[in-house]
Design goal:
The chain is mainly beta. It is built from 1 helix and 7 strands, in the order αβββββββ. Strand 4 and strand 5 form a beta hairpin.
């Protein structure tokens, strides 16, 4: 039983795809995915990301039942924040 938390953590990390490339998908043609300062809707919006924006996914957390991933822009790695994992696809 003591191994269960470690196994669960490893599973969550693998599912998140830490360090993997990602692309914004599903925001829609007239909308943008909000890059936020923290993992949740209450955090400040830093910028909007259109569909197709290439990102590097770093780590993910669950807040109020929603999975949020810390990402950075591939084209500008110093620009980082959190986005809903629901809008991340594979490049």
């Amino acid at each position: 039983m003591r191994r269960f938390p470690a196994l669960l953590a490893a599973t969550l990390v693998a599912a998140c795809g830490i360090g993997n490339g990602a692309v914004v998908k599903g925001a829609g043609p007239d909308d943008m995915l909000k890059l936020r300062a923290g993992p949740g809707l209450n955090y400040k919006i830093k910028m909007g990301l259109p569909d197709g924006t290439r990102l590097t996914r770093h780590d993910c957390v669950t807040e109020v039942g929603q999975l949020w991933c810390r990402v950075s822009l591939v084209s500008a790695p110093r620009v980082s924040g959190y986005v809903s994992a629901d809008y991340l696809g594979t490049p």
